[in-house]
Amino acid sequence: MKKLCVKGRYLSFADNTPFLYAGDTAWELFHRVNREDAVYYIENRARQGFNAVQAVALAEFEGLTVPNAYGRLPLKFTDGLPDPALPDTDGDYSYWAHVDYIVSLAQKHNMFIVMLPAWGDKFNKLWGKGPEVFNPSNAYTYARFIAERYRDEWNIIWMLGGDRPLDTPEHRAIIDGMARGIHDTGDTHLITFHPVGCRNSLDWLDDADYIDFHTAQTSHSAAQCYKSDEIMLKMAQKSDKPYMDSESRYEDHPACFDASLGYLWNADDTRQNTYWNITAGACGQTYGNHCIWSFNDKPSDYFTYNWKDALTHPGAEQFGFAKKLRLSRDFFSLRPANDMVKTHYPSMGHISASMGDRYAYIYSPLGLPFAADLKIPGGKVLRAAWFDPRNGEEHVFAILNGEGAEYFVPPTTGKGNDWVLILDAVK
């Protein structure tokens, strides 16, 4: 069994093999995709280097009232409402048998299913469709059911919440009830929380001992998208647990939720959040494509592609290069090190840095030149290389004296010309 654990600020398997959470948002996977298309999706994401898929058991798009690809609903009804205490498990093609199939499919490709028991509109409707069906009692009952069903599957991470705030004591009691229901089955899978946009799980659950690692949703507006690493560092100040961004800018998402602006967030934008967050010491990163989380099959102004066409868009293909870089050197020693950087730019241009045992990464999101302190412990002589986030290639360009500071000019400059400087101690 591949037991996933917390190790300091990061995640690892029980044998201390590092695990960098490389996630995709596939919220509607159980609800809108048949088995053949699930195979197509999982196989593509595995090839691209993803190892975690965020999906919702009771989905956002009317997941309680609109059947899945096989005409099945997840819950039976009581007094005209879906009843979380009555999951419908009847037959080989029940809703939950379909979820079983996808969990097993992901296992075959060494991928985790990061399972949200329910989207947040099922307990705090706000702008969603709902209906609100949870209270603390049936939240506990439902969570026991789902945890007992997947307790012995190694590839589960629980993600509570679902894009809604915990506005009332009852909302918090519902989340607490779900966590207790999971733990009372003997389930030992990791648990986290997916918050509403521009918030993080520490805003509501800083005292929740059942949270194993915290997440933010820096989201798709301009409010936090250029300071996601700042959000990561603030989370690190509030908790000693691992932290990450479970929803930053999606590729192909209308910027600021407004299709009339005529700009879709693209691969350049998604790379910025990935590398900023990794250098801020995040335990992983979640990529997303607007047309894939929804499994959109009817292109429109707001969902501009068929999901199968979007699977190979550049941001997804390039996401694996960040994972490759992060795992290429001593994993657990990496820590934020922005004090290395002596040149500062605002907003989109800001440069971030991290340092591990005998190496450092410095990320320039616009390829702007910068001065950096070269004092890496144990590094009297440094090898300097440029890592290209667009193709994953690393090119050595200098051998440097590891004292004082140096001025660096990336190979190209401008939006879409981001670069990572790698400094390795060689003597």
Description of the molecule:
It is a single chain. The strands form 6 sheets. The protein has a 6-stranded parallel sheet. α4 links the parallel β8 and β9. The chain has 2 domains: 324 residues, Alpha-Beta Barrel (TIM Barrel), CATH 3.20.20.80; 91 residues, Immunoglobulin-like (Sandwich), CATH 2.60.40. It is 26% helix and 24% strand. The chain is globular, with a radius of gyration of 22 Å.
SSE layout and pairings?
Blueprint: E1 4-7, E2 10-13, E3 18-19, E4 21-25, H1 29-32, H2 35-47, E5 52-56, E6 75-78, E7 81-87, H3 95-108, E8 112-116, H4 136-150, E9 156-161, H5 169-183, E10 191-194, E11 199-200, H6 202-205, E12 214-217, H7 228-238, E13 243-245, H8 267-279, E14 284-287, H9 290-293, H10 307-310, H11 314-327, E15 335-336, E16 352-356, E17 359-364, E18 370-373, E19 381-388, E20 393-401, E21 405-408, E22 419-425
- From the 3D structure, determine the CATH topology of the largest domain: TIM Barrel
CATH architecture of the largest domain: Alpha-Beta Barrel
Spell out the CATH superfamily of the largest domain.
Glycosidases
| Spatial extent as radius of gyration | 22 Å
What overall geometry do the principal axes of the alpha carbons give? globular
Low-confidence stretches: none
Helical content stands at: 25-40%
Strand content: 15-25%
Please count the helical segments.
11
Structural class call reads: alpha/beta
Q: How many strand elements?
A: 22
Largest sheet: 6 strands, parallel
CATH class of the largest domain: Alpha Beta
Instruction: Please tell me the overall pLDDT.
Output: 97
